[in-house]
Specification:
This protein is mainly α. It is built from 15 helices and two strands. The protein folds into two domains: about 180 residues, no CATH class; about 150 residues, no CATH class. Strand 1 and strand 2 form a beta hairpin. The protein starts with a helix and ends with a helix. It binds protoporphyrin IX containing FE. The site of protoporphyrin IX containing FE has 30 residues, from helix 3, helix 9, helix 12, helix 13 and helix 14.
Amino acid sequence: MALWLRRLRQPGPDYIVRAVHGKRTIPNEPIMSVAHSEPHPRRRFVRAWLLIVAALVFATAALGGATRLTGSGLSIVEWRPVMGALPPLSDEAWHAEFAKYKTIPQYQEVNRGMSLEAFKVIYWWEWGHRLLGRVIGVAFLLPFLWFLWKGWIEPGLRLRLWTIFGLGALQGAVGWWMVTSGLAERLSVSPYRLAFHLTLACTIFAMLLWTAQRLKPRDGIDLPPRIRTRAMLLLILVLAQIYLGALVAGSRAGLIYNTWPLIDGALVPDVSRLFFERPWWRNFFENTLLVQFNHRMLAYAIFALAILHTANVARASRGGAALTGALVLASLITLQAGIGILTLLHVVPLGLALLHQAMAVVTLAVAVIHAERVSQRRAATADIMRPLLSS
Ligand code: HEM
């Protein structure tokens, strides 16, 4: 006992934690040995669950992109969170849904004369997107409550997971708020709300993936703080670029200025054309020239930063997971920029636009995995693993 107490008082490395092997508590067991050991089954369950939910979020975002690009997003003009899970089941119900759609400006000015069969197609897209949103809610909440009941999740992780759940619920409300913007006066949804909806979805996706990665058993990496900061910056910039991309999509800014590298006949258009709206800040959201210009400029900045970051990691680490991550991220950013340019030059064909949106989320996933990997501090790993290792 005395020896045990003396060992506890001894100063040790900051990654020292108490670990549990079976029922026997071993004080001061370094997390490194935990990290090297077989993945604990509970940790594996929680991680697999988070990854499945992240995959569902990815699928929902992709389906949302298809819904927007096929012009289907306004086909369901009501929000019934529970009963809406059932599609129309009779001819009468289909006619009733179609009648509601006929009251909105989009039908009257864009789709007038549309057949019931064509309406069913746009309805199924929107219904599928909303259904997947509901599936995510259930796939997150039920296992979460079960894990909580079993006591497998400690307070720090609990708060983070409740936050993700709260953001998911908010996302449902934001989706409806977005749809309402296209029901009365506009022919499509507000670009502000569309961009917020997509960025929130991507934030939830990033949080799920980051948390799942934190539960992965492995060693930390010692890299200069500068590299960690750049990896985080890249992650934040990719998320910001997704926001700007959604503004391009929402304001249909990809249907004009279909040249590259020139935009409106120049590399940098005239300031008077970039800022003609009043007040000045509205140009950032509503002037299609500035909206598209910003999306291009940020792509160039991200590309340059990714190359610089890869060179820095190569110098600091001489191989390993950090370099692989930086290389894959830089390659994906290059590919994504290439797809973006093709999407623009071909005036946003459905296939390329869908690919560009899906690849944005894949790029974000790699940015998250890479930033989490290089920012991982051993003590932090210990903190988050502790509840799953103790019973
Ligand atoms: C890191 C690089 C890039 C990322 C992460 C990115 C991401 C995105 C995202 C998320 C969207 C919204 C898609 C949607 O909601 O359907 C978008 C739209 C768009 N992006 Fe990019 N983009 C990148 C680079 C570029 C580049 C370099 C160009 C062209 C010069 C470009 C052109 C476009 C166009 C034209 C759209 C509108 C597509 C539509 O209307 O559906 N992107 N981008």
